[in-house]
Design a protein that fits this description.
Chain A: InterPro entries: Glutaredoxin (IPR002109), GRX_PICOT-like (IPR033658), Monothiol_GRX-rel (IPR004480), Thioredoxin-like_sf (IPR036249). The complex is a heterodimer of chains A (139) and B (112). Chain A is α+β, with helices and mostly antiparallel strands and 139 residues long. Chain A is built from six helices and four strands, in the order ααβαβαββαα. Chain A has a four-stranded mixed β-sheet with strand order 2-1-3-4, sandwiched between helices. In chain A, strand 1, helix 3 and strand 2 form a beta-alpha-beta unit. The longest helix of chain A has 20 residues. The N and C termini of chain A lie far apart (45 Å). Chain B has a domain of 69 residues: 2-Layer Sandwich (GMP Synthetase, Chain A, domain 3), CATH 3.30.300.90. The chains are: A alpha+beta (139), B alpha+beta (112).
């Protein structure tokens, strides 16, 4: 029953994201290429509300605080000033909310996931594995 | 007692989220709470939620997979009315009554 519910929900998810993009077909090639380029250009990328100097949202701020705590440098992109990016990343990542964290081109999660990785102590091992210098890692 | 009170005054979106999560995950424990009163949105808005779901469906899955299952279950609401969703998705075997984190303070969010 879960699989059926999940499959139906996946179909709904895909169609509702298409509608949200307004382009009648999901992400344009141009936007997809743009986001591709962004997540590959820097090791750690955060799509957030506001900037790392001035986060405009408590969830985005928490992601910045976790990364700062571990001395992880990251490139931030303010979705509040970029509507194409704001909607585009939700389709690209198949993730409905902001903030979104990418490490070495791979989607890691949002605020809940970053905070829980930090609290469980998982985050240092994860960053070590990915070759990202961090304060409490063993490398 | 707080939980009972919020269930009694639960809005339609909260009830819908609760129903969908119950059906999809057959949870051992489920909490659905609107947090829009903590954000800079009109009174009565149902746009920000926290959900804590304890279920066998999360056993053996990485945290991101668990979150994706919840996102998929609530996809329609997330594409429309629900603007922020805090998720605590716990496999039954790891459940020992732990409470979900407090929400971070709203920073204004440009009024959205």
């Amino acid at each position: 029953m879960l699989r059926l519910a999940t499959r139906q929900a996946s179909a709904m998810l895909r169609s509702s994201y298409s509608t949200a993009s307004g382009a009648g077909g999901g992400l344009s090639d141009e936007t997809r290429k743009r986001i591709d380029g962004i997540v590959k250009k820097d090791d750690v990328v955060v799509f957030m509300k506001g900037t790392q100097q001035e986060p405009a949202c408590g969830f985005s701020r928490n992601v910045k605080l976790v990364l700062d705590f571990h001395n992880v440098k990251f490139r931030d992109y303010n979705v509040l000033t970029d509507p194409e990016l704001r909607e585009g990343v939700k389709i690209y990542s198949e993730w409905p909310t902001i903030p979104q964290v990418y490490v070495k081109g791979e989607f890691v999660g949002g605020c809940d996931i970053l905070v829980s990785m930090h609290k469980d102590g998982e985050i240092s091992d994860f960053l070590d594995e990915k070759g990202i210098p961090n304060k409490y890692g063993s490398k | 007692m707080k939980r009972v009170m919020s269930t009694l005054s639960e809005g339609p979106v909260a009830r819908l989220l609760r129903d969908k999560l119950s059906t999809a995950f057959q949870p051992k424990h489920l909490e659905v709470e609107c947090e829009s009163h903590l954000h800079s949105v009109p009174k009565g808005a149902e746009m920000h939620f926290r959900v804590q779901v304890v279920s066998d469906a999360f056993e053996g899955k990485r945290v991101i997979e668990r979150h994706r299952l919840v996102n998929t279950c609530l996809a329609e609401e997330l594409a429309t009315t629900v603007h922020a969703l805090r998720i605590d998705a716990i496999p039954t075997s790891k459940w020992d009554g732990q409470k979900q984190e407090e929400s971070p303070t709203c920073r204004g969010g440009f009024g959205k």
